Amino acid sequence: MNAKRVPAKSGKASKITKLFVLDTNVLMHDPTSLFRFEEHDIYVPMMTLEELDANKKGMSEVARNARQASRTLDEIVSGSEESIKHGIDLTVSSHELATGRLFLQTEAINNVLPSSLPTARADNQIIGVAMHLHEQFSKRPVILVTKDINMRIKARALGLDAQDYFNDKVLEDTDLLYTGSLELPTNFWDTHAKGLESWKKEGRTYYRVQGPLCPDLLINQFVWQDGPQPLQAWVKVGAGKTAELETLIDYSHTKNAVWGITARNREQNFALNLLMNPEIDFVTLLGQAGTGKTLLTLAAALTQTLERKLFAEIIITRVTVPVGEDIGFLPGTEEEKMTPWMGALEDNLDVLNKPAEEGEKAAGSYSGDWGRAATMDLIRSRIKVKSLNFMRGRTFLNKFLIIDEAQNLTPKQMKTLITRAGPGTKVVCLGNIAQIDTPYLTEGSSGLTYVVDRFKGWPHSGHITLQRGERSRLADHAAEVL
């Protein structure tokens, strides 16, 4: 590759573009990363192609991505008349997402690494290529892009510029993630009183307001205000000059209990309004351990499946990422293999099927035990535990689909799961982005963060971040101090 032979891009001759050297894990993490560097050039070392070839076999997500990256490279190279040595323009192949050039290593590069680094290792060979380019183009920024932290440290120790691949991150700072609720300022009614309209319909109160806050309000976002006249409502029309607010059903009152469960705090009330509303097809619940995500979702699912007959059955799935050492192969059917991962389901079913205190004692303990056992059998017959591995190609009709531990899913896996939903299906994603167990996934690039950000403002979806733990004083204190 010769910088003197690279034609200057029109209108950009004055601006020095960067040269990014890609490590294999970037392409295997995001096969479309070749088109994510805008006007800058990309250099793919021969060792990167070798590692792609070595990882292409199998049915894992990594193998699929390796094959996809190879196909993309093949399309770019075979579809261009330009010389590989002088770089291939990416404008056409990327549909104008990228305007830089793709360079492949076309010549052997002499060893420029220190003798302490063994050249047999693939990482070190890629670092050697980056060092050679850095020396060859001293006036141009040459940057190594890798997901491997140790490789970035080694590259920086040798005087190279090295970066993580950030393009898959939905947000740089997860504090900016949409929470689904907003506290109204104390002067809200004063500043939004002009042209205020109010009416009642089916036991709910509606407000139509206009003012400075209206353009920022998203559909199905919850708004609340404490004080002498407390308000809890959600936005039915927003992101414009006017907004419509609708008051909520109070699920903290025992008359509105869902399968015997009442909301213990404001956010749980918001969550139950989302879970119990038939117009909402997609719900995401975030929150630390003990905030009640699984319990509320299961209670809503059982009520709507067994009592209201809105859904045929409940399907629960989760990513099988072990926290400790793996316990090896498990015997049995798909359902039996998933049982160890579903301890949370069993714990919550025990809570939901607890005996009624006074009535049960009056009826006699035997009928209570028999009744509980019969109810448990009925519940289990309507709950199916499925593995993620067999989801591709399926369609769920009239199902209540619960995706637990969704923070461990990649955006691509999340898309695969959510697009399984057929007519009459409700999908609920639960997770805590502070507890990610999947390698290479971070809070910013998790599939859960991705869907929360992409679905906000859609009329048939809702999100709420649960704040307060309700498990026990011990669990709450542990979450704070540990």
Fold and architecture overview:
It is globular and about 80 Å long. The protein is an alpha/beta fold and 482 residues long. It folds into 3 domains: 161 residues, Rossmann fold (3-Layer(aba) Sandwich), CATH 3.40.50; 74 residues, no CATH class; 222 residues, 3-Layer(aba) Sandwich (Rossmann fold), CATH 3.40.50. Strand 11 and strand 12 form a beta hairpin. The two termini are 53 Å apart. The strands form 3 sheets. It has a 6-stranded mixed beta sheet. The N terminus is likely disordered. Helix 2 runs antiparallel to helix 4 and helix 11 packs across helix 12. Helices cover 32% and strands 17% of the residues.
| Neighbour order of strands in the largest sheet | 3-4-2-1-5-6
Mean pLDDT: 82
Low-pLDDT ranges: 1-14, 356-367
By secondary-structure content and strand pairing, the structural class works out as alpha/beta
Total separate domains? 3
Give the helix proportion (percent range): 25-40%
The CATH class of the largest domain is identified as Alpha Beta
Biggest sheet layout: 6 strands, mixed
List the helices and strands and how they pair.
Elements: E1 19-22, H1 24-29, E2 41-44, H2 46-54, H3 61-78, E3 88-89, E4 101-104, H4 122-136, E5 142-145, H5 149-157, E6 161-163, E7 181-183, H6 188-191, E8 197-201, E9 204-210, E10 222-225, E11 231-237, E12 242-247, H7 266-275, E13 282-286, H8 293-307, E14 313-318, H9 334-338, H10 343-352, H11 357-363, H12 365-382, E15 383-385, E16 399-404, H13 411-418, E17 426-431, H14 447-455, E18 461-465, H15 473-481
Parallel strand pairs: 1-2, 1-5, 2-4, 5-6, 7-10, 13-17, 13-18, 14-15, 14-16, 16-17
Antiparallel strand pairs: 3-4, 8-9, 9-12, 10-11, 11-12
Helix pairs in contact: 2-4, 7-8, 8-10, 11-12, 13-14
